[in-house]
Write a structure and sequence with these properties.
mainly alpha; single chain; two-stranded antiparallel sheet
Length: 214
């Protein structure tokens, strides 16, 4: 029996990104920082191994690539720690840019430069591979620590330079930083998930109306 990404990662804080997918790998990656942006800060990806495990579960890298990257991290723990730090910085810069655009604000130039720099830095890890439909990017350098960042960057640049960028939204709950692609025909989606933030905000509005009526 094939397990879903959520089932594979159940028990991990970042499993939530698979229970409520955002519609793009880069957005799911941004969403792993949800708790880190709302005090008290709690990082869901606490090591390079966590980043690799998350990418593996997301299907962004193969099992073989995941095994190779974990082995490389064990051989070079300090280098892996530095790449992990860059991954978190990339995530926060990417999230800042997308949250700004979703709110109709201009993103910070500094955050755009971080994305550009990482895209250029990881370019040697990428290869084009033919598929039945055309071509796709793959990660060629299995044991190159930097290659873990490449799938997220390819997803981000593809989204940011496409018409789908117009459909990127932030959850309507003011304490939720979850990003998603609104795929509804009339672009009416407001919540990361109706069962969580949607219901929470409904209850909140209901209580506010009752207080106002008293």
């Amino acid at each position: 029996m094939v397990m879903t990404p959520y089932e594979r990662t159940r028990g991990k804080p970042y499993a939530e990104t698979f229970r409520c997918p955002a519609g793009e790998l880069c957005l799911d990656f941004c969403n792993t920082g949800q708790e880190a942006r709302d005090p008290p800060a709690e990082e869901w990806l606490t090591s390079y191994a966590d980043v690799v495990d998350w990418l593996d579960a997301a299907g962004a890298i193969s099992r073989k690539q995941g095994t190779a990257l974990r082995g490389a991290a064990e051989r070079e723990p300090e280098a892996a720690r530095k790449v992990w730090g860059r991954a978190i910085r990339l995530r926060e810069s990417l999230a800042a840019v997308l949250l700004a655009k979703a709110a109709g604000r201009a993103p910070a130039d500094e955050d755009l430069r971080v994305i550009e720099a990482e895209y250029a830095r990881t370019a040697p890890c990428a290869r084009l591979a033919p598929t039945e439909e055309g071509f796709r990017w793959t990660v060629e350098a299995d044991s190159e620590l930097d290659s873990a960042l490449r799938p997220v960057l390819e997803s981000a640049i593809s989204l940011m330079t496409s018409e789908r960028m117009r459909r990127v939204r932030r959850c309507g709950n003011s304490t939720c930083y979850w990003l998603f692609v609104d795929e509804t025909k009339n672009r009416s989606r407001r919540w990361c998930e109706m069962a969580s933030c949607g219901n929470l905000m409904k209850v909140r509005r209901h209580r506010e109306r009752h207080r106002a009526a008293d």
